[in-house]
């Protein structure tokens, strides 16, 4: 009888864990869908449009897919994407990664080791004021939402990854090899 209760408890725990992941997948899918198309436009030049708020969006993240027989694999199917949604208008950002080696592995440096560095940069123009900014990383199953107050002129939105913890040496501590746990959004 104890074995059946243990298995039932394990099955219940598995459902809770899976439902947590499914909820993020649903949120990521919701973030990816555009319900509006009139919130922002991509700004291509450095001119600040009168009466508009310009967002200089930047996000750098290090990731790895696999290491097999001397080859470091990168995310290709699906690729590493950032989904950015502002007040219901969504866009997917992609970047070509660069293989980065920050050796030796240091438990105090989350991006130490060999992995793929992705740099996402984009400029947007929209009305100044309060906006809801949602950022999703489908590969890492992370969604972060924050209300931002944008002023007329140039605003910098910088996103910093917060990596998960590894308990095995040499990566003991927060490290990119464990994936992204959350995001820190900094607006200046």
Average pLDDT confidence is 83
Q: With helices defined by DSSP (H or I, 4 residues minimum), what is the helix count?
A: 1
Q: What is the β-strand count? A: 14
Which term fits the overall shape?
elongated
Poorly predicted runs of 5 or more residues = 1-22
| Largest sheet, strands/sense/barrel | 6 strands, mixed
Judged by helices, strands and strand pairing, the structural class is alpha+beta
Radius of gyration, in angstroms, nearest whole number: 19 Å
Helix content: 10-25%
Beta-strand proportion: over 45%
Q: Can you write the helix and strand succession as a string? A: HEEEEEEEEEEEEEE
Distance between the termini: 60 Å
Give an overview of the whole structure.
The protein is of the alpha+beta class. The protein has one helix and 14 strands; from the N terminus they run αββββββββββββββ. It has one helix spanning 2-32; strands at residues 40-42, 53-63, 66-68, 71-73, 81-86, 89-94, 98-102, 113-126, 129-137, 142-150, 153-163, 165-166, 173-174, 180-187. The strands form four sheets. Strands 1, 2, 7, 8, 11 and 14 form a six-stranded mixed β-sheet that branches. It has a four-stranded antiparallel β-sheet with strand order 6-5-9-10, covered by helices on one side. It has a two-stranded antiparallel ribbon with strand order 3-4. It is elongated.
